[in-house]
Amino acid sequence: MLGALIIVFREIIEAGLIVGIVLAVTRGVHGSRLVIAAGVAAGVVGACLVAVFAGVLANALAGIGQEVFNASILFIAVVMLIWHNVWMASHGRQLAGQVRQVGEAVRAGRRSIAALGVVCMVAVMREGSEIALFMYGLAASAGSTTADLLIGSSLGLAAGVGVTAVTYFGLVTIPPRRLFAVTTLLISFLAAGLAAQAVLFLQQAGVVEVLEGTAWDTSAFLSDTSLFGRVLHTLIGYSDQPSVLQVVVYVATLAVIAALTKAFGPRRAPARKALGAAPAE
Amino acid sequence: MIARRYAVVLGAGLALGPGAAPAAFADEPAKVSITLEDHKFSPAEPTVPAGKPIAIEVVNQDKTPAEFESKPLRVEKVVPGGGKITIQVRPLKPGRYRFFDDYHESTTEGFLVAQ
Q: Is the ipTM of this complex over 0.85?
């Protein structure tokens, strides 16, 4: 039972963290809860579909269907996150401040919220399909321990929802003005980490064959399959044996976000300004 | 400059994906087949030549799905119950590379031996 709990929980942590962050980012924006709920629901349906068609997907595109699919949906999430950050930099500051209720700003914010809904969907779909496959495997292999394992899996799912709650309530204790700076940073690192993951899938598929060497190996120090490693993996994209290209893409993604935020943001990039000011406060 | 490089990578992911893989391998890969039955890999320690690209075929004889995973080989791929997949691996240095079924990690593992 404990084994099943751990497997499911490990898979769900990433989705749990991401949904928690998105909930905190969109707090107080009218209609955002519905969009996120729809995103999560669509993700669950998508996960089941991916699980059901796992065989088809595995054999698609000359055997690299799974990798290309995973890389594609991760890149979609990356683009959505970058777009959200840039949008927030250009007109989103009033949302975080006192003028949050102003109808005009909120209406304009809808599209950005929809992008985050898509991010939730992708996060749930990707990790969820592995959980669906695992649980299907449990259900299919009849045995006296099956019920026990299903209970463990359910507890794992519940713990994942717990991660979402802890993330959300942890973030919303941050004062609104600083929450914006914090979430901008969180989303930047999240996007960079997801981009690095996507690249890994392309390298697995053999679509991209450059810079395949291992940049470093810190698996003895902190394994990215451990609980803490898994959390860091999602939040900042930590990997214990990344390829060189993954590191390049990670840094490049951060650079692109910083450049776009600066280009579209008013005067100075708010994230950097707030970050620089943070230790002094 | 960095932005352009990123855009190229992004473009490669979205546009090049379908059908690009077979042409990408200039060297003919060394093939190895691993069968999964009763949650055991056989052979559990397949040997492959070092310094050549490798194509690992994983055949799942079990009814339940498995996830073939290896950190050092950088592979994470679902093998449907009763299905099979092929994994392309970069040329390896001599050594032992651990792989396992992510759904049964404690009992289902093996080592790819490159020499």
A: no
* pLDDT tens digits, A131-188: 888 887 777 765 556 778 788 889 999 999 999 999 999 998 998 778 888 888 999 9
- Torsion sign over Cα A232, A233, A236, A239: positive
Exposure letters A149-165 (e unless 16+ CB within 10 A, then b): beebbebbbebbeebbe
CA distance B112 to A106: 55
* Shortest Cα distance, chain A CAs vs residue B103, angstroms: 7
| pLDDT attached to residue A250 | 97
Residue B93: which of A61, A203, A278, A213 has the closest Cα? A213
CB contact under 8 A, B83 and A141: no
Please give the average per-residue pLDDT across B52-67, as a whole number: 90
Tokens of B51: 């310094």
Question: Tokens 């941050």 map to which residue?
Answer: A174
List chain B residues with CB under 8 Å of A241: 71-72, 74
Q: Which residue do the tokens 């769900």 mark? A: A12
Calculate the CA dihedral of residues A198, A200, A203, A209 and round it to 10 degrees.
Answer: 100
Residue with tokens 């993996």: A233
Residue to substitute from A48, A68, A74, A75, interface B, most B β-carbons within 10 A: A68
Query: pLDDT tens digit string along A1-47?
Result: 777 888 889 889 989 999 999 999 888 777 889 999 999 999 999 99
Residue B36 — pLDDT band, cuts 50, 70, 90?
very high
d(CA B9, CA B3): 10
Give the whole-angstrom CA distance, residue A217 versus residue A222: 9
Residue ranges of E strands in chain A: none
Q: Which residue has the tokens 């999602």?
A: A234
